[in-house]
């Protein structure tokens, strides 16, 4: 029997990909049609965006904690959040959380170490790449990192927030990410974090100049391993 997983969701597309990955890959560990029990709670994305826009990480933490409490009340035994950006608020709520969390950036950093990478490019929303979420996780494992330039950051943020989280996917998005990743490769990176949980819906190892660290699926797989003990 696997432990129930609680998903603290933020944006729909990333949360859906994480959920689907747990369900579809669960049978590799639990047999045909098998996967752990999963519960998910999602407040309106607008509440998160408004808090992030005004730099109010405490409000972000309060939203995450509300989800955590609701998921704990219906039987989740640990929590994951398939959104990189709001992990910058996790330290503000961990001491009050009813359940333990898997940290998405720590999961990604562990995967980078296991695959032998040394210098990691970071992609994601402007809020994420301006934060210390990934630098802290990577540096704690002896890894170097590279962030986007301001122009690259703004271009990627626009694609994510104007299009991907709004269920808009098109071929014009791919070159935006490719240019950023190529510059990171030229700067010595040997891998790149897909640090928005929607990015893997358009980018993967087949269309990038660097090996990818898919934060969404890596988190889902880590949750699966934890759930089955």
Q: In angstroms, what is the radius of gyration?
A: 17 Å
CATH architecture classification of the largest domain: 3-Layer(aba) Sandwich
Structural class: alpha/beta
User: SSE order, as H and E?
Assistant: EHHEHHEHEHHEHHEEH
Question: How many domains make up the coordinates?
Answer: 2
Q: Quote the distance from N terminus to C terminus.
A: 9 Å
The gross shape turns out to be: globular
Q: Percent of residues in beta strands? A: 5-15%
Count of helical stretches: 10
Poorly predicted runs are: none
Which CATH first-tier class of the largest domain would you pick? Alpha Beta
User: Averaging pLDDT over every residue, what do you get?
Assistant: 97
User: How many strands, what sense, and barrel or not for the largest sheet?
Assistant: 4 strands, parallel
The overall strand count is 7
